[in-house]
Write a structure and sequence with these properties.
disordered C terminus, 29 strands
């Protein structure tokens, strides 16, 4: 997805080099005065209304989510945090040598690619953090960290694993304790435990590495490693054997191991209850577990695409359709988290009435552009699964505003087109793609798709002069799903309005059918010519039920099952295999993406071709499993030739929407019959 346009990337690199004193050139001399002060007086976006008040049901839901011990901290998967207090236990490792080269791993993240970075192998992560397991390799050391709940207490077990050390001396395990996010609290190191006091009272923390103090021990013997590179109270120990941490009361290493074993078995039994789909459920629960964080600024639990993205965006970042897909994935086992993701991205809606492409701390959003409208099909799908009317009531108004916005701001010549508004208030001054052709392409979510290589941007209308089959299909499905929601909520006027818009754009989409090509084709509105570059979005009319059965069969047989275009060992590429851009295998130029497979699969479910649907799901799942079983990676995108996600640096190693490739197989196993296009 992301905002990775070349102008932005170049600007970021230029600023970084200038800060480093490497490439300022004339700008640093001639532009000094202009750069002396920032353009804004505050780091927060101006003129931003407060988020809508949460309903009583949703307040209660977020309170349920934001409770207890879990890996809530964005910055490290080895930190456990107690909510709502913000009490944090950090596990770090000091690499020691006898000469030079000591270094400290304070935080650990999944998928870092820098030279010498830690390599994290994520293991199971229960939705509520009741059991977690991961392994880390760094500086020649390998170790495992497991956690488990014991009622309201937490236990942690750090275990060194066989490795090939690069130093003659052992590393030091350092466990520090503090309060995050400026929450009130105190931590004090006592002789054999760490005493903490937070908003809800005292929580003592013990380590098996700190024996009870006796009068025969000297102060030095109780001091542990006295030069640890942390500022909070800590335990430290030569990391040559397992070390256990426990809250609430002292526990032996054997007791801690027993609690972890019990919770591991509980997790495994929960997964096994899914039967045939157990492995898919395990993968999705693990992925969402490690990608879910707590945002203290808005007091909410959310599932950004990955921790690396969130750290780089200031603590968290929510992308539009990515977050709706996170809601769908969470529905496999955690209703509250599914609802939270759907409602929180809707709560980021701009004053103009659209869900932004991105939102980040400080109130900064893409005030110029949205992203593909998959909100209503997601919300209706969740309602069909869980049947909570209050959830529809909370979601309906922002979904309706967003639906109307597309019609009012992205319509041209009777079609819908991607756009990027010019001057907006507030303006995101550091986003140089706003009000440009690149900004309009970014609204598609397909940042560098070759479909848009020759498109023309109209600076007056702020639109690409390009009738987009994918956008119109998703919008029709959005109208239909939202009309069904309006029926449930007894809003007949809104339902009538939505069905009228659906019918109008369905008629417009029908004019994009090309009988000789057996496909719905995008149309260059600048030249009046069809574009014959094919991508998975050309199949989205199946999702909208806009194709007749005959048209659907023609599309499937001539294009989807054609190995020269989309079929093969790995499916389906983001541009047809016979397109010149396919060989690029660069982001949306030929690589395979979970959301595209998911949306095409939903379309296939609307037509009676179970064998094709089954093969499509199996191939999608096989692609997911290739990296998941080999490397515990779930990728942002995959090479359509080799099936690898690790072949490029521009594919995040733990990006949750890659799990949609497994989710389609989960749907095929659990609900294989034809269904409405309005949700799984």
């Amino acid at each position: 997805m992301r905002i990775t346009s070349l102008p932005q990337f170049t600007a970021v690199i230029a600023v970084s080099l200038c800060v480093a004193g490497l490439a300022c050139g004339a700008q640093s001399q001639a532009g000094n005065a202009a750069l002396s002060f920032p353009a804004k007086a505050s780091r927060r976006a101006e003129a931003q209304p407060a988020p809508p008040l949460r309903s009583a049901d949703y307040r209660a839901l977020q309170q349920r989510l934001a409770q207890g011990w879990n890996t809530w901290d964005t910055h490290s998967v080895t930190t456990q945090v107690l909510l709502p207090e913000g009490l944090a236990i950090h596990i770090g490792l000091q690499h020691n040598t006898t000469l030079t080269g000591d270094t400290f791993l304070r935080d650990a993240l999944i998928g870092r690619l820098q030279a010498g970075a830690e390599q994290v192998q994520p293991g199971p992560h229960a939705w509520d953090g009741g059991y977690t397991d991961l392994r880390i390799s760094w500086e020649g050391h390998r170790w495992r960290i497991q956690s488990a709940h014991d009622d309201n207490d937490l236990v942690l077990l750090a275990t060194p694993l066989p490795s090939t050390p690069i130093s003659a001396v052992p590393p030091t395990l350092i466990v520090s304790v503090d309060f995050l996010w400026n929450r009130p609290g105190t931590t004090v190191r006592r002789a054999d435990f760490i005493e903490t006091h937070g908003a809800s009272g005292a929580v003592p923390i013990y380590c098996t590495c700190a024996s009870p103090a006796t009068q025969t021990q000297s102060p030095a013997q109780n001091r542990n490693y006295a030069d640890a590179p942390v500022s909070a109270p800590y335990f430290s120990v030569d990391f040559t054997a397992g070390a256990g941490i426990a809250t609430g009361r002292r526990r032996t290493l054997a007791e801690i191991q027993a609690i972890i074993d019990r919770q591991r078995h509980s997790y495994e039994n929960s997964i096994a209850s899914a039967g045939r789909s157990a492995s898919i459920r395990d993968a999705i629960e693990t992925i969402l577990g490690w990608d879910t964080i707590y945002d203290p600024d808005q007091d909410r639990v959310i599932s950004p695409v990955s921790r690396l993205w969130s750290v780089n965006w200031g603590g968290w970042v929510l992308f539009d359709w990515d977050t709706f897909f996170a809601a769908t994935l969470a529905s496999i086992g955690d209703r509250d988290l599914a609802y939270a993701n759907a409602l929180e991205i809707l709560r980021e809606e701009t004053p103009e009435g659209f869900v932004p492409n991105y939102a980040r701390p400080g109130g900064w959003k893409s005030f110029d552009r949205s992203e593909p409208p998959v909100g209503a099909i997601t919300v209706l799908g969740l309602y069909r699964q869980f049947h909570d009317r209050w959830f529809l009531e909370d979601a309906f108004a922002p979904l309706l505003r967003w639906n109307r916005w597309w019609n009012e701001h992205r319509q041209t010549q009777g079609y819908l087109a991607w756009g990027s508004d010019g001057d907006t208030h507030p303006a995101n001054l550091d986003d140089h793609s706003r009000g440009t052709r690149q900004g309009a392409i970014l609204e598609s979510g397909l940042d560098n798709s070759p479909m848009y290589d020759d498109t023309v941007y109209n600076p007056q209308s702020h639109l690409l002069e390009f009738a987009d089959v994918g956008l119109m299909s998703l919008y029709i499905a959005d109208c239909d799903a939202l009309a069904e929601i309006a029926d449930v909520l007894a809003k007949p006027d809104a339902a009538k309005e939505l069905r009228a818009r659906s019918a109008r754009y369905r008629a417009s989409l029908a004019t994009l059918w090309s009988e000789p090509d057996a496909a719905f084709l995008n149309k260059d509105l600048h030249t009046g010519q069809f574009s014959r570059r094919l991508s998975p979005t050309n199949f989205y009319p199946l999702l909208a039920r806009a194709a007749t059965p005959a048209q659907a069969q023609a599309m499937i047989q001539k294009h989807l099952l054609n190995p020269r275009e989309f079929w093969g060992q790995w499916v389906i590429p983001s541009i047809a295999r016979d397109d010149p851009a396919f060989a690029d295998q660069n982001y949306w130029r030929g690589r395979i993406w979970g959301p595209m497979n998911y949306l095409v699969y939903l379309g296939l479910r609307n037509y009676d071709d179970p064998d094709v649907r089954r093969q499509f799901a199996e191939k999608s799942y096989a692609l997911f499993l290739k990296e998941w079983t080999q490397n515990d990676h779930v990728h942002e995108n995959y090479n359509a030739i080799t099936g690898s996600g690790d072949d490029v640096r521009s594919s995040d190693r733990f990006y949750h929407w890659g799990a949609l490739l497994g989710y389609v197989e989960y749907l095929e196993q659990t609900a294989p019959g034809p269904t409405s296009p309005s949700g799984p």
